[in-house]
Design goal:
By secondary structure, the chain is an alpha/beta fold. It is built from 13 helices and 17 strands. Helix content is 40%, strand content 18%. A hairpin with a 5-residue loop joins strand 8 and strand 9.
Length: 402
């Protein structure tokens, strides 16, 4: 089918919950995808930070094929080797001692919210249930994670929201301290607010938050759905901030393209979950776990983590160079291969201009271009990305002068 035919079918039969771009992707290879007409695009969205190893990585494909031949799904009424092995690997390379598997970031955050409430209930009684989250955060689209999300634009029309959530500004310790009360069960935050405009948490602030939570036995939940799995240059972003959470959530890049989420926790918190307290039919299925195991192996043993640090630094340097000579760029911020370019103008036309040049990027918060390419992106591909951005923004700048 051609792009127009695919668009018509989707528009007729799929609920209209996405503002889709006029592009129908049929296949991918490396950091490139191809549309229905066979045109090639450099993908710097990567399924919104999902396709960690790009498209068609031979080792990942082989691991998935092997598992498909053996077992795609059973249920969590039984044991499977891939689930156990993946949990062990995640524990070995993180602060955590136990893992709960699910299918998405929203589900992982749901698990974290339930875990925090149950922990507080068992230790302090039913009056301690509130969770403090950050303004402009994004934690998912379920009713609990929608409420946890500090953006009214995604909450409107779904009221009444779940009670027990309070919002404060990220990096404002005084506001957080004022919000903490005897009802506070947890503080939940992203180390980098991806959907919130690629806003990076301050290291001193995070250490103070960690100290505050430890003093009051308030759980610190770190949402690494977007920053985890090498996105910022280390396996998990918290490693670079000098803190350890009590609970961490993962998804997106964990499965390299297959849906999988995880909620990781220390033992004293994890043990409040017992049989029947939480569950997921598809969570931790053998196929998704086999894929995630291979993603982990490639990142840790195949050198991709180290290479992503180099390419992330190269990309950041190149973006700052653009900022110095293009006044439309107000700010460049981020870590590793999660970078945001805040503009003085609307970012959506820039996304469309780049798409016309066969470059896929994303816009969030209206004026922030978000770059989250596969971790396998090469220096030459970054040079191409920078060239297209330079051309597109320069042309827009020149047009505004006339």
């Amino acid at each position: 089918m051609l792009t127009e035919e695919i668009q018509q079918i989707v528009s007729q039969y799929v609920m209209n919950t996405y503002d889709r771009l006029p592009l129908a992707i049929t296949r991918g290879r490396g950091c490139h995808v191809y549309d229905a007409e066979g045109r090639e695009y450099l993908d710097c969205v990567a399924g919104i930070a999902v396709n960690t190893l790009g498209y068609g990585h031979p080792d990942l494909v082989a691991a998935i094929e092997r598992q498909v031949r053996h077992l795609i799904h059973t249920s969590n009424l039984y044991y499977t080797e891939p689930q156990g092995q993946l949990a062990r690997r995640l524990v070995e390379h993180s602060f955590a001692e136990k893992v709960f598997f699910c299918n998405s970031g929203a589900e992982a955050n749901e698990a974290a919210i339930k875990l925090a409430r149950l922990y507080a209930h068992q230790h302090y009684g039913p009056s301690r249930y509130e969770i403090i989250t950050m303004v402009n955060s994004f934690h998912g689209r379920t009713m609990a994670t929608l409420t946890a999300t500090g953006q009214t634009k995604v909450q409107e029309g779904f009221e009444p929201l779940l009670p027990g959530f309070t919002y404060v500004q990220l990096n404002n310790l005084e506001a957080l301290e004022k919000a903490v009360s005897d009802r506070t069960a947890a503080v939940m935050l992203e180390l980098i607010q991806g959907e919130g405009g690629v806003v990076v948490a301050n290291q001193a602030y995070l250490r103070a938050v960690r100290d505050l939570c430890s003093q009051k036995d308030i759980l610190l939940i770190v949402d690494e759905v977007q920053t985890g799995m090498g996105r910022t240059g280390t396996l998990f972003a918290y490693d670079q901030f000098g803190i350890q959470p009590d609970v961490m959530t993962l998804a997106k890049g964990l499965g390299g393209g297959l849906p999988i989420g995880a909620c990781l926790a220390i033992n004293k918190v994890a043990k409040v979950f017992g049989p029947g307290t939480h569950a997921s039919t598809f969570g931790g299925n053998p196929l998704a776990c086999a894929a995630a195991l291979e993603v982990l192996r490639i990142l840790l043993e195949g050198g991709e983590l180290e290479r992503s640090r180099e390419t992330g630094a190269y990309l950041e340097k190149g973006l700052h160079a653009l900022q110095e000579r293009i006044p439309l760029i107000k700010d460049v911020r981020g870590m590793g291969l999660l970078q945001g370019i805040e503009l003085t103008i609307d970012g959506k036309p820039i996304v469309m201009d780049c798409l016309a040049r066969r470059l896929m990027i994303n816009c969030t918060m209206g004026q922030v271009l978000r770059l989250v390419p596969p971790l396998i992106i090469q220096i030459g591909e970054i040079d191409h990305l920078l060239t297209v951005l330079s051309d597109v923004l320069t042309k827009r700048l020149n047009n505004t002068k006339h």
